[in-house]
Specification:
362 residues; mainly beta; Neuraminidase; 4-stranded antiparallel beta sheet; 26 strands; 40% strand; globular
């Protein structure tokens, strides 16, 4: 009898692993080589020591933007936009945008624009009034607004990370992103929007379209493609208008936000090291479907390893800052001022601030 029960349990387990419905339909792809942490990406501990800015009991400072007056704004997991003065050591609650605000950008009038993963594109006036400005484009819903940047004429470039897995429908941004990375159906896109001219799909076909950053002259847009471990340059003006090229690839982790820094720097956050399981099963969609049926703790997830890079417009590495022991983790990007680097995170309960002088960054 016990033998029969054991066989029945085994058959039930095999049937579950082979047949249980899952939301992903994995697509075969070829993972690029993973050189690892070598050369200009060699390990270091430059991110290990930092000043922790408190978040009023909240967590997940995904993005930070600093206004011309020095006011700092940060988005949080709980939907709050926090703000602080440039010399403050604590951020205070300002406006609750609802949903999960991710990318932030300020326009010339001081309005704060928000890529809200649950809602779409939002605008918050200096007085704190919140409005949803864009939730659909060309007849389709924006399902995972992720990051944005704004030109001097008010044109906004917004990443819709996945049109397959809406963050709100799948228990949050992290869970939805893991589904998208497993499936690898390349449903991410970039949206161009102007309040007077409307919106259009500018680019599509990305494996999780993530960070976006404009050249100060508006000549090109940099785009982080998380699922392919690379950053693109898309030309908006000049003789190469409409063309795209990869400026850095084979990164050792998943690129998240891209932010314009100072002195020709673009900062790229790597949220987690690459997963050998994801790469090794890239050409085995059937097995990846089985992986999706496993309990959460057995599936690939974020590893606590902090890393941000500064690259130039051609993708050459200018700065490499790491925390292999995970003092900072789930690192999404950097906001840079004259004196500080603010390293943002998907899940941390504080915002990490670094003195540029201590890091020997001009």
């Amino acid at each position: 009898m016990m033998r029969f029960a054991a066989w029945a349990a085994l058959i039930a387990l095999v049937a579950y692993l082979l047949l249980w419905p899952v939301p992903v339909e994995p697509v075969a792809w070829k993972a690029p080589a993973a050189p690892g942490y070598v050369g200009p990406l060699a390990p270091n501990t430059r991110l290990a020591q930092f000043e922790a800015l408190t978040l009023d009991g909240l967590h997940g400072p995904e993005a930070v933007v600093v206004g011309v007056d020095g006011t700092l704004y940060a988005s949080t997991h709980e939907g709050w936009i926090l703000r602080a003065g440039v010399n403050d050591t604590a951020l205070q609650r300002w406006v609750n945008a609802g949903g999960r605000p991710l990318g932030l950008a300020l326009d010339a009038e001081g309005n704060l624009w928000v890529a809200n993963a649950y809602i779409g594109l939002q605008k918050i006036t200096p007085q704190g009034t919140v409005s949803t400005e864009l939730s659909h484009v060309e007849g389709s819903a924006i399902r995972y607004a992720d990051d944005l940047d704004i030109t001097t004429d008010g044109t906004i470039y917004l990443s819709d990370a996945s049109t397959r897995f809406a963050a709100q429908d799948w228990a949050g941004t992290l869970s939805a992103s893991l589904l998208d990375l497993n499936e690898h159906s390349r449903s991410g896109r970039i949206i161009e929007y102007h309040p007077k001219r409307g919106a259009r799909i500018l680019l599509e076909g990305f494996s999780f379209a993530n960070g976006v950053a404009l050249d100060p002259q508006g000549r090109y847009l940099l785009i982080a493609e998380t699922g392919e471990y690379r950053v693109w340059k898309h030309w908006l003006r000049g003789p190469a208008t409409g063309k795209s090229e990869v400026i850095i690839d084979q990164l050792p982790g998943f690129p998240d936000n891209v932010h314009l820094g100072q002195n020709g720097r673009y900062w790229v956050g790597l949220t987690s090291p690459r997963s050998p399981i994801i790469d090794g099963l890239a050409e085995w969609p059937f097995v990846r479907k089985i992986i999706q049926r496993l309990p959460d703790f057995l599936r690939p997830n974020v590893v606590h390893y902090g890393m941000v890079l500064a690259v130039d417009e051609n993708g050459s590495v200018l700065e490499n800052l790491q925390a292999p022991a995970g003092e900072v983790y789930a690192t999404t990007g950097v906001a840079e001022t004259d004196d500080y680097l603010y390293v943002t995170s998907l899940t941390m309960p504080v915002l990490a601030r670094y003195q540029k002088a201590a890091l020997a960054i001009d």
